[in-house]
Amino acid sequence: MVNQNQGQRMLQIMSAIFIASLVACNLIFQKFFILDLHYFVLILSVGIIPYPITFLITDIISEIYGKEKANKLVLSGFFASIFVIIILLISDYVTAVYFSPVDDATFNQVFGLFGPAVFASMCAYLFAQFIDIRIFHYFKEATNGKHFWLRNNCSTLFSQMIDTASVISLLCIASDMGWSTGLSWNRFPELFVAGYLFKVMVALIDTPIAYICCYYLRKKFNLKLGESLSNRSS
């Protein structure tokens, strides 16, 4: 018998990592850095560092817990980010006292773009994550639960392409509308290529990690290949 408490505990841990990664990438996105890979150089936002973790976790949860749990996690991450936006907007609105280590101008410079930027990011996030989950389960059904590497990579690579294009496009549009996002359409090609290449590399690297995690959870919960806890409980 599957220990339901153990299953819920593992789900809670992965959900916490997912939401923390999502909120973190939205908080730190304004810093850009250069990643020198010798053969080519990528200009990236530091927000891209934790973001691929969210796709890794949704694939693991999709595989072990089923589509419904993965979809609920995506919505939980969305509402958590909206809540953070509200808190930061309120924090930016109130006036700092004279002895505050961080004054109003500094706080606004760091978090003032958070609202429009995260709105763009969240639109792209929802679109990409739901596409990721749908493609993942399409390949899972088409292969009868076999070839985990195929659904893991195909779903992530396609959805990450959609996400990267969407978020940069929305930020460029926001810049055209008067928001000082620091992005413009002439930077779109290099930022899209850099962001997507980074996500592709991470997706290929995290495939063994996903295999190990799913193997461990299948063994722990005594699941057959392609079986999920949602199938067992239904």
Q: What would you note in describing this structure?
A:
It contains 8 helices and 2 strands. A two-stranded antiparallel sheet has the order 1-2. The model has no long low-confidence stretch (mean pLDDT 84). The longest helix is centred in the last third of the chain and has 34 residues, at 188-221. A hairpin with a 4-residue loop joins strand 1 (32-36) and strand 2. It has helices at 4-28, 51-65, 67-93, 104-111, 114-142, 148-176, 188-221, 229-233; strands at 32-36, 41-45. It is mostly helical and 234 residues long. The two termini are 14 Å apart. The chain is globular and about 60 Å long.
How many H/I helical runs? 8
Helix and strand sequence:
HEEHHHHHHH
Regions with pLDDT < 50 over 5+ consecutive residues?
none
What's the helical proportion of residues?
Answer: over 70%
* Shape summary: globular
Main-sheet strand order equals 1-2
In angstroms, what separates the terminal alpha carbons? Answer: 14 Å
Q: What is the overall pLDDT average?
A: 84
Describe the sheet with the most strands. 2 strands, antiparallel
Structural class: mainly alpha
Return Rg in Å. 19 Å
Tell me how many strands there are. 2
* Quaternary structure type: single chain
Strand portion, in percent? under 5%
